[in-house]
Design brief:
Helices cover 72% and strands 0% of the residues. It has 127 residues and is mostly helical. The chain has a domain of 82 residues. Helix 2 packs parallel to helix 5 and helix 3 runs antiparallel to helix 4.
Length: 127
C-alpha cells in the first residue's frame, strides 16, 4: 500500500518531467516538442480501455487476450512515438539537439510516473 511519501515523490518526478518538456519548448522558442506530452498522456489509455473491454470473468486465458494484446501494442506504439518524435523533429531540423534531449528525458519521466502511479495504486483482485 502506497503512502503519502509515494504520492509526493511521484508528483515531484512528474513535475520535473513536465518542466523539462515545457523548457525544451520555451528555451528554444519552438513548441513542437509539446507533442510529446500528448503522446505520453494518451499512452496508458489503450491499455486501460482494452483491459476493461476484455472479460476478466472467463477462466480461459486465450479468450480475451487479443484485446489485451492490442491495447499493449497501442501503448507501446505511443511510448516509442514519444521517443521517436523528438528524434524525427531533430533529424528534419525542426528543433535543436538540446530540445530533443530535454523532451525525451521529460517524456520518459512523465510516462514512468504514470506507470508507477498505476502500479502503486492498483486495486487487488479477489477470487
Amino acid at each position: 500500500m502506497a503512502g503519502i511519501k509515494t504520492i509526493i515523490g511521484l508528483s515531484f518526478i512528474l513535475a520535473i518531467g513536465f518542466l523539462l518538456v515545457i523548457l525544451s519548448a520555451a528555451l528554444y522558442k519552438n513548441y513542437l516538442t509539446l507533442l510529446v506530452v500528448a503522446t505520453y498522456v494518451v499512452a496508458p489509455l489503450p491499455n486501460w480501455i482494452c483491459g476493461r473491454a476484455s472479460n476478466p470473468d472467463d477462466f480461459m486465458e486465450s479468450s480475451g487476450s487479443g484485446v489485451i494484446d492490442f491495447g499493449r501494442f497501442l501503448t507501446g506504439f505511443f511510448v516509442v512515438m514519444g521517443i521517436a518524435l523528438p528524434a524525427l523533429l531533430y533529424h528534419s531540423a525542426q528543433i535543436y539537439g538540446g530540445a530533443m534531449v530535454m523532451s525525451i528525458i521529460g517524456g520518459l519521466l512523465i510516462y514512468g510516473t504514470i506507470i508507477s502511479f498505476t502500479l502503486f495504486f492498483q486495486e487487488e483482485q479477489e477470487f
